[in-house]
Amino acid sequence: MLDKLSRPLSKNWQVLLFFSLAGLLLYLPVLGNVFLTDDYAALYRVSIKKEILHKGFFRPLIDVTFWFNYILSGLRPLGYYIFNLALHVATCFMVFKVALDMPFFTDERREALAWTAGWLFLFYPFHNESIVWLSGRLSSIAALCALVGIHYSYRSRPPWNWVLPGLAMLTGLLAYESIVMLPLMVFLLTWKKQGDRRAFLRTVYGWAGVVVLYLLIRYFSVGTLLSRHKSEAIVKGGWHAGVVRFLKSAGRCFLPPIEATRVSVIAFLIVCITVAVIHILLWQRRRSIGAFLNQYIRTGSVLALSMIPLVSFGVSTRTSEGDRLLYFPSCFLCIMASAVMFVFIKEWRQRLLLTGLMIAGSIFILVRNNQLWIKASKASSSVMEVIKGAGGRNVILINLPDEIEGVPVFRNNFANYLMVNKADTGKVYVNNYLLRLDYLPVKDTIQVSERANGSFIYPSTLIRPDSGSVMAGGGRYSIENLRNGTKKIFSRDSVVICYWDKSQLKSLILK
Questions:
Q1: Is the pTM of this model over 0.85?
Q2: Fewer CB in 10 Å around end: N or C, the chain?
Q3: What is the pLDDT of residues 284-324, one digit of tens each?
Q4: Could you write out the DSSP letters of every residue in 343-384?
Q5: Hey, where are the domains in the chain?
């Protein structure tokens, strides 16, 4: 039956073409973005230090792929974003292929289900951090490799049914650890294809060898099997915190980030009730859909396994931060959603209408999220424009944005940002970073307020004449961070002062 359903190469190219065109239209607005935060760590290693393997951080494919982009396009970010988009399109194609492999149905609905799953994944609104953030490509690389492995575990005979998936898993783990449960997933999905006991044991030993090989590579490369921040994240808070992270992660698979806690809880309860009703109705039909239900349970178990790394680290319910962790689980979630649709809705026009409505809602959320990444990109660009336009003067930055609603701007690697852009690090002084919890209470934009003892910029900056200087043209001022007590003395005519007002970078002119 699988041979009859196999598509010729031209058909595969048609699927890729459709996904490519739709993906390009969807993400065209972000292709003009610049590098952000952790991107500069990889760019610094690749373009300045000329190294790929970073000690203590074993995800070498970020440097390998950035090096590939750097060779092709230098420090022009367009090529890097096209690479991310190409990865996403390839993953959509593999979602289509894996859905086609899964025996939910044995008739023409099988290919229609695969198309639906691919489209839902392409427009799925809660994982686009993997596409629009260049460093987020690690999660899409890992997911792509895992799907390739699952596909070949279905299609290949021993020993290739574990050799090819094992190589795919090994490659994916060099990008991100989100696919660490892949061997168990493959066993669940292809249990009936494992053969006799001897063949099954050979497969088990083969997968065990792949895992051991990865651990050896990791240990001899960076000297540890688990980095400190990973081990702390996994055990943080005990099992109680683990349950909370599981519930948050499950809710974020269906819901956008919501600031209001009460609204978030109510929405999550509605999702839980809806999912429960759907599964009760499926169970009531178990006699007529026995084969489908068996495959559905297997796929649901695989979804649960794919969420284990996500639950270990958690995902934000208030912003889109961490959405890249949803990338791999969303592959199976979209397949399951498509399968349920084909059970309850028999008429193809109704299925098309429902799919269209789901995609329309997803596009609405995606467009709003993409706008945040565009805003973050403009913030990063505006800071460098000020630094390069300072004419040799020192630059003081106040309220440098740490993030914009979960989108990282200058959270990390600001020094690398300066060096990659060939700016003089000794002439740039950051007074403070503006955190999300800082700007949330401000309804409009941050303004400069005059006080008796100087000019105050929310939340923690005070600028005033230096008491030890004579106030004349070119007088001296002090800028103080009231939160940590740090102070810098400067001459008015020797510096350019700018502050982020929550929406744009503004120049500050001292009177």
A1: yes
A2: C
A3: 999 999 899 999 999 999 999 999 888 777 788 999 998 99
A4: HH--SHHHHHHHHHHHHHHHHHHHHHHHHHHHHHHHHHHHHH
A5: 39-344, 378-507
